[in-house]
Amino acid sequence: MYNDKNGTFRRNILAVSIFAASAGAPVTFAEEESQARALEEVMVTATKRETSLQETPVAVTAVSGEMLTDLGIQSSVDLVKVAPGLKVSWQGPWPSFKMRGGGVAGLNGSAVPLYTNGLAGGTSWAGWMDVERVEVMRGPQGTLYGANTLGGLVNIVHKKPDTEAFDYGVSVTAGDYDLFKQEGFVNLPLSDKLAVRLTASNTDQAPLIENKGNPEGGLRDENNSYVRAQLFFAPTDTVDMNLSYSKWDNDSMGNANYGYHYVGIPINSETGRASPFGDVLDPRKGTISGNTAAGGRTYHNGNPGTNPTGYYEVDGDFENTWQSETETLDFELNWDLGFADLTVRTRHTKSENLNVWDVDQSDAIDPALWDPRTYADSGWTNARRWTGVIDGNTGVSEGDLVDVVLNSNSDGAFRWGLGFYYSDFSDPKKNNGTYVWAYNDANDMSANYVPSWTYWDFYGSKSRAVYANAEYDITDDLTVSGGIRRQEDSGFGYRNYSADPNWCWCYYAPASYVKPVSGYTDASYYTETAEWSRNEYNDVGHTDYKLAFNYVMNDAINLYGSFSTGYIPGGASGTQILDPNELDAFEFGMKSDLSDSLRLNMALYHSEYTGLSYTVYEQTANTILSRQESGGSLSSQGLEVELLWMPTDALTVNAGLILDDTTLDEYALTESRFFEGPYNEEGGYYPVRVGRSGWFADGDTDRPVAPPTYILDGKEAAFSPSYILNLDVAYRLDLGEMGTLTPGVTLYHQADYKTMNEEFPFSRQDGYATVDLRATWETPVENLSVKAYVNNATDELYKVSQNVFSNGRIMADYGRQRTAGLRVGYNF
């Protein structure tokens, strides 16, 4: 049943209908179309020069802007519907891509980054409109795009201003959960050499995750705006340049940092104690069954056995906050020098982020949640009660990117390219972030907090690289190519801790402990940097290379193969320096247009990752701390198949199939979040108990013991289903003078997979399938379309992230539930 509990749904639909009726465009009738459709040539820039998709020896999926609109792809979490092998996990505000084993374990940074117009950067939630295409490149792209592209990359290519004609387009979308979205663009040619293009959107939507305790504190709502302004100038036939400014402004409630849903605590049914390998999953938040105090703290909202939190519900008192702003200024120069084409791309980017959420999801004014200690035992006077727990961070980032490419213009057998890359995010005043774990005031839950654990990290990095590539036609059918890139990275990181030595994990606090949320970026709150927390790495150089061939088997089939390397630089992680991650990858593929209406592309791949880091957890006092160690490895191999089939002028079929085997070769994780502690008569066994000097204590003898280490060699890696199938089918119906109607269905199915690398039974997600439905009416009014859609029509429940929080509590994020809406667009 669709969620239409919000009163504005009908009003939004009415607004869309009025917009459609008043579009004011001239009326024309659909013309008779040819009975035969031929496959169009798709141009991509995966090799940093424009080439035909079918002649590019790289596994690339190119998704046109029209397809993005048709399928309702408006963010990175939706792209998996059309990009075979691409997976997305979602924890906290920012989703992350995973592909060909990249991103599933132990990397120092993103392995499948998001690019915009050929430069690293962009936001997962904005910029996906007025788009020329999105290129999903699979496999390492290190020689051309540099570090952090081990699994591949996603590049959004925006439409540029056009000097030929005035153009504009608008759309309005309304849906359940109070969705109301407006989008539009206008292209203004000022002369035959100068043009301006403006693109903007505004989106509002009520939380998809409802807060039963505080309606103002849900999650996954939308309240954001986006604007992009471009100025294009072509002073001569050989020179053009484009200046682009974009800004994304978000003020919403965000998503939970560790998973919004408390799945429960795994229990060994034979002992009654918490165990990661327990055969029973007790659906509770409390660390001790039946004991709301839970050793001085509680995570109950009543009896979870009779009132469990829904999969798309939370129950807390705090108004979750996610405020984010990102600005970019881009400049691109293209100059035909005759013997070569010069392209210069530069970007200055700046972002600010504040994210705070109600981590315990408890009602801080519930008398049942009072600290079991008496007020007198606290030893404080004139104190207030602080019972809710919040978790959050702030962050700022600012820096510059430069990429210069010179590609030969020769039509001969030999072609070459040279490049230079530079990035600078080294100013610690502009690149830093704070973390806070605090208690909020039960009497004023929106302004003031008592920090119990907080720090301020400062960091910076610089990178510079030179690269070259060349290709040579040995025969008319066989081309060999090679690329090399030398990149050097430097950076630093240091941490400041809270300055007040009395700040502690406490429920009662004197007024002097109270700090406003804005204070977390006040330098007076922190100590001077301890020398042991300062780390630097200088001129850590790395050379990547690629060797490839392309063989034209006949007019319909191209075969290609490659060996390439990639890496992610080491760097500062808190107080540690991590080793670089490295990759060796093989790929063999086929690209074919088997007929005018059938395109089939395939790729076999094998990737070997080394130098992976892994997290070691250590229980300290009443919480857990983590550190990173290096030395792990994994391998990934599989087959990717893409198919485009247009058997008639009305029917279009897009399909993809991935067969994958990603295995942890050498990998280990140390556990600290589960331990079968001593029996407590009030409610059973503590899941975790801290012993002397921060060590674990044996549950029966109370002797210090080391936490267990799990050896995961040869085990399946997380987020690595053995197969993924995606299928989209659309059929256009001719309505005569009423235009055309195109219903479509998108199926996404994947096999079961682990959500964590540990072999815990609860970590496995069963295989699932989602079905999206749509119907688009191209009306008799020229360029006016109306689309109705239902996403996740079967309301499939599946995990997109999962982790173990302190004291053995399992927390998870789930994919978005069923949503429906109506979109009306004019030329957009």
Strand content: over 45%
What is the CA–CA distance across the termini?
30 Å
User: What structural class do the secondary elements suggest?
Assistant: mainly beta
The number of helices is 3
The number of distinct β-strands equals 52
Proportion of residues in helical segments: under 10%
| Largest sheet composition | 27 strands, antiparallel
Rg value: 28 Å
Bulk shape: globular
Low-confidence stretches: 1-34, 288-308, 364-387, 501-521, 676-696
Task: Give the averaged pLDDT, no decimals.
Answer: 80
Structural account:
The chain is mainly beta. The strands form eleven sheets. It has a 27-stranded antiparallel β-sheet that branches. It has a five-stranded mixed β-sheet with strand order 3-8-9-6-7.
Provide keyphrases for this structure.
disordered N terminus, 3% helix, 828 residues, mainly beta, five-stranded mixed β-sheet, 27-stranded antiparallel β-sheet, 3 helices
Topology record:
Elements: H1 8-21, E1 43-44, E2 51-52, E3 60-64, H2 65-71, E4 87-90, E5 95-98, E6 114-116, E7 119-120, E8 131-138, H3 142-145, E9 152-158, E10 167-175, E11 179-189, E12 194-205, E13 210-211, E14 222-233, E15 239-252, E16 261-267, E17 280-282, E18 313-314, E19 321-336, E20 340-357, E21 384-408, E22 414-425, E23 432-441, E24 448-473, E25 478-497, E26 508-509, E27 515-516, E28 535-552, E29 557-568, E30 572-573, E31 576-577, E32 581-595, E33 598-620, E34 623-645, E35 651-666, E36 668-670, E37 679-680, E38 684-685, E39 696-697, E40 704-705, E41 709-711, E42 715-716, E43 723-731, E44 733-734, E45 740-750, E46 753-754, E47 764-765, E48 768-778, E49 784-791, E50 799-804, E51 810-814, E52 819-826
Parallel strand pairs: 6-9, 13-18
Antiparallel strand pairs: 1-2, 3-8, 4-5, 6-7, 8-9, 10-11, 10-52, 11-12, 12-14, 14-15, 15-19, 16-17, 16-51, 19-20, 20-21, 21-22, 21-23, 21-26, 22-24, 23-24, 24-25, 24-27, 25-28, 28-29, 29-32, 30-31, 32-33, 33-34, 34-35, 35-42, 35-43, 36-41, 37-38, 39-40, 43-45, 44-45, 45-48, 46-47, 48-49, 49-52, ...
